[in-house]
Amino acid sequence: MNQILPLVSVIVIDYKKKNPYLIECLEAIEKQTYKNFEIILVCDFHVDLDYPKLRQKSYGHYVGPAEKRDAGAKMAKGEILAFIDDDAFPCEGWLAGLVPHFQKAKVAGVGGPGVTPPGVSWQEEASGWASASPVGAGPYTYRFLPGKKQYVDDYPSMNLAVRRFDFMKVGGYDSNFWPGEDTKLCLDLTHKLNKQIIYEPKAIVFHHRRPILLPHLRQNGNFGLHRGFFARILPETSLRLIYFLPSLLLLGSIFMVISSFPLVPITKNLAPITLLRSIGFYSFSLYFFVLFLNSLWVLNKSKNVFQSLLSIPVIFITHLWYGVRFLQGFLFTAKLIQ
């Protein structure tokens, strides 16, 4: 790859006829300090736009995200493909943070954090803190807030750049795996090609969240469904304890509720049931204490008491619903359907 200003193809996919965030996204891309780029917009329906570096492909009907990204990659002229969602917009140094890593031949991809934009509604902000906080995100807070530079083996395509040659070599995105086609792509890059994906904290995009509660739960439920499915069929990067914890919380909650009913008095005197209830009580006490500590973390970051308190029920409900959908994907889903 040329080390002096390689051409970057920024690929944006859009699926709404009237998307309030698309212009915000494109205008931020135009302001990049790194100037050698083109913009490829792939959408379901044609959008009247006039940007000097923009090329557009539209279908006139609904097409899945993976197919759109693959179509954008085929149109691309750049050595680097930079994928960004249409509800995200990059900081001015986004491309400048991504590109230098590709000077190393071993690097196939680079991702950066997707931070909740400032000034959004309280519902969107609450969704953002539920996703970005230590208890909400677990060890993956760096996906939502700038963390330390590191190697990763799985990264979402809302902010992911990939070497075009490597992308084509593994066949691009697999439309059979949606949602979660980015997990399959990263697995192919790191395991099939034995290449590296780097997390670059300076390559920031501002990513709008689904507002609480139903849109937020719907999205996180989809994440749980695909992760459960992948834990079964792609265990290399998905069969990890952290992904099972919400389901354990769900099953524990069901057990505690059922065993508390007076309809089953005989079970209350059984030693194993009593022991399990004791374990459950202390486990839930610890969980909610950690949620409280997490709310203090949110308070420190947000300087907002309301958001801090709201994070407790939002994260708890999110964990339960993620757990439901994870089990559905892990045990009962034969194929992910777009």
TrEMBL record:
Pfam families associated with the record: Glycos_transf_2
Top-level taxonomic group: Bacteria
Presence of keyword Transmembrane: yes
Gene3D superfamilies named in the record: Spore Coat Polysaccharide Biosynthesis Protein SpsA, Chain A (3.90.550.10)
Span of domain Glycosyltransferase 2-like: 9-129
Single GO term (MF): glycosyltransferase activity
Region forming the signal peptide: none
Keyword match DNA repair: no
TM spans (from-to): 241-267, 279-299, 305-324
Record key words, sorted: Glycosyltransferase, Membrane, Transferase, Transmembrane, Transmembrane helix
Family recorded in the similarity comment: Belongs to the glycosyltransferase 2 family.
Name of the protein: Glycosyltransferase 2-like domain-containing protein
Organism of origin: Candidatus Collierbacteria bacterium GW2011_GWB2_44_22
